[in-house]
Amino acid sequence: MTTAGTLQVRIQEADFDVARELEALQAGRVDIGAVASFTGCVRGGAAEGGLTALTLEHYPGMTERAIEAMLVEACQRFQVLRAIVIHRVGRLEPGARIVLVAAACAHRREAFQACEFLMDYLKTHAPFWKKEATPAGERWVDARVADDEALARWGIASANALGGEAAVPVEPPAAAGDNARHPDPTTIADDASLATLSRANPP
Hints:
Layout: E1 2-4, E2 7-12, H1 18-26, E3 34-41, E4 53-58, H2 62-78, E5 82-88, E6 90-92, E7 97-105, H3 108-125, E8 128-134, E9 137-140, H4 145-152, H5 178-181, H6 191-200
Parallel strand pairs: 2-5
Antiparallel strand pairs: 1-2, 3-7, 4-6, 4-8, 5-7, 8-9
């Protein structure tokens, strides 16, 4: 868990209580006029090929740093007073909550924009990898052009679905031990290097 004043990042296997998190986000502040939030869930059903589970992997330490950078950017763009990102990892079944993104601002327009911006950024720049399980077997989830396009409207380029330098391989390479799966994030020079390394070398 990372907490930096008014910005919070939590990566966890456990579920979260949306109402409790939103109440805590606003607690003690009288200058907050709007709280916008997004809760993402595992989508199942026939349209998803009979999805039975979704497994999420991440880089401990590196993932938190990447999301922290997103929150700082959102604060600068939309005058965010408080914000939180909670993202679950591990094996999740259809209907389970995956992610909570919430932004508290003085006005509703900025709150909505900040929340949407954070989700678009999270989908393309956070070091997470997803593997779907269906009756036909398991597969790593491809990056989508639509996610790159969503981020582009904020003036940020992403080429994950097009196989650019920062693209995520469909399937993580075989690990040569714990150090290979989770490199020390303190050895990364800057946020640009973080983005490139994390997207090119999944766990």
